[in-house]
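Note to self: keep these together.
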Amino acid sequence: MDTQCTGRVFIVEDSAPIRSRLVEMLGAVEGLCIVGEAESPAEAVAGITETRPDCVVLDFQLLGGTAVDVLRAVHPLSPEIAFIVLTNHPTAQYRRACMEAGAIGFLDKSTEFGKLKAAVAECMPSRH
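Structure:
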């Protein structure tokens, strides 16, 4: 691990412009390192398993599935990884499904995007 990294983040987002924005925003935070990106549940599961990040920023609606698919595949095997769902689909039903599957946060892209940096910072090992 890079000695400058105090926290490792993996981004799962099927929209390339939003994914780029997330990489730019979170990559600018001192100590955070973006260790991988994915746009589908299969890519996400493989990448998260390989990189073992501290935190995953996870879009709800993905190419070929949802955040719940990723959570159900990874969280039981790696409960130490913090998952924050960031979505344009902030329904109570989706929130409940994600939280029950292991997410620690569920943010609405249109109204809570600005809260993401703080939410990710709270997941970092240096904060504990």
